[in-house]
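User: Last request for today: this protein with adenosine-5'-diphosphate, please.
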Amino acid sequence: MMLLYEGKAKKVFKTEDPEVLRIEYKDEVTAGNGAKHDFMEGKGRLNNLISSDIFKYLKKNGVASHFIERTSETEQKVKAVHIIPLEVAVRNVAAGSIVERLGFKNGEEFTPPLVELYYKKDELNDPILTDDHVLRLDIATEDEIRALKEAALKVNAALIKMMNMMGLKLIDFKIEFGRDKKGNILLADEISPDTCRIRDLETGENFDKDVYRNATGSLIDTYTKFYEKMEAVK
Ligand SMILES: Nc1ncnc2c1ncn2[C@@H]1O[C@H](COP(=O)(O)OP(=O)(O)O)[C@@H](O)[C@H]1O
Ligand SMILES: [Mg+2]
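Assistant: Here's the final one, the structure of the complex with adenosine-5'-diphosphate:
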């Protein structure tokens, strides 16, 4: 079936059903908006398995998403949406860019969690946006901005619970949403160690893409261990 678009981590294909898309997870890993880029055998499989199981967990916990079913080791069927060009980030603990940009101390807790909106636009390097920017750029309405932030906090609560059962701590993550045919907002894209920052509750060891970003360990081994820990929540 026809390739609709190809991103850095996934390929999106049309299916016979215009309301359904097939997403194929690629054996590719990037960091810093593509500045660092590598082929990694088995990575697509792991992200697809993990992301599928996270969407299933979210559904069981009352959070709807685009996920329909996993159709192979590297593919899943999802509901087609028009992606809202925002990366909605939730931070429970200060790490990464917020430490560098705003001077928060690494490890500082955010209570309540911090929600941020970034413009999903590679050419502009995904800059952070204020609500007024979102309105002025016609990306979303005021009501939608509120709904996106609320939905992101719900996802956060469910993921915190899930990772806690796995002996892990959710530091932060980013998600994407889309609008379906009727204009309903739906959680879309991917949730995996590519899109979250996760630490071991006891050792503080990274269970996310930071091992690749900072070249501190094997990404495949780390994601495999994460997937094994997911047994605890199935
Ligand atoms: N349900 C969906 N319907 C339409 N597009 C989607 C859906 N889920 C994810 N996408 C889009 O698929 C594209 C490919 O994903 P990815 O490789 O992660 O892209 P990127 O390089 O932008 O991170 C992204 O533009 C993402 O927003
Ligand atoms: Mg992506």
